[in-house]
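Q: Okay, next protein. This is CDP-alcohol phosphatidyltransferase from Pedobacter psychrophilus. I've checked the sequence twice, so it should be correct. Can you predict the 3D structure?
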Amino acid sequence: MSKLPKEHKFIDFSDYGRPIARLIANSLKNTNFTAIHVTIGFIISGLIAIFCIITGYYWLAAFFLIFKSILDAADGELARLKQKPSYTGRYLDSVADIILNAMFFISIWFISNNTIWICLLAFLGLQLQGTLYNYYYVILRNKVDGDTTSRVFEYNTPIALKGEAQKHVNVLFGLYKLLYGAFDKTIYTLDSNADLGKILPNWLMTGISTFGLGFQLLIIALMLVLGLKAFILPFFLTYTLMVFVFIGIRKLFY
C-alpha cells in the first residue's frame, strides 16, 4: 500500500531500493524471519561496509552500503506483510541507523585527509538533512490522507504492542530520544509552522528526497568507487546549506 494518494506521489530518490525490498519481504512472508531479523541483517551489512571502507575494498563497501539501504526498507515491508508492527522494531531501526551513520563517517574520516571537525559537522549536517526530509514527508502524508502511522516528532513513550515487551520499548525509545531529540528540536525551531502551510508540490518533495538516507548512502557509495573519498565529508557538510534553501522555499511560497 502506498503512503500517498496517486496525485501526490513524487519521485523519491531515497527509495530506489523499494522494489527489491518488496521482493525480499515477500520471499520471507511465510518463514519464521521477522522484521527485526531483517533489521539485524542491515546492521550486519552496514558493519561489513565499514570494514570494507577501512580496508580499501571500495566496490564491496558500495555494494554493502546499498544492500543496507535495501534491507532498511525491507524490514518495514515485512512487518506490514506479516501484520506485526512493533515499536521495538521501529526504534531499533532508527537507533541502528544513526549509530551506523556515525560509524560510516568515522571510517571515511579515517581513510581521508579531513579533520575530525569536518567529520563531526558533516555528520550533524547529514542528520539534519534526514530529519527535514522526514518532517516534511510525514506532514505531507497527514495533509493528503496518506499513511498516518508515523508522527512528525516522537514525544512520549508508546505502549508496547501485542507480542513485545514494554521494557524493550522503553529502552529503545529512550535511546531514540537521546540520539534524535536535538535534531528534531532544531528542525522544528527552523520551521515550526510547516504543518500550517500549503501542500508541498511533488517537485519540491523530489528535491527534498535527496536528504533521505537511501540517497545519502548511494552518494557515499558512488564517491567511494569514483575515487572521491576525500570529498565525501566536505560534500555532506556543504550540502547541508540546502536545508536552509528548502526551508526558505517552503516559507516563502508554501
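A: Here is a summary of the prediction. The chain has a mean pLDDT of 93. Residues 98 and 179 are 8 Å apart (CA to CA).
Q: Noted. On to the next one.
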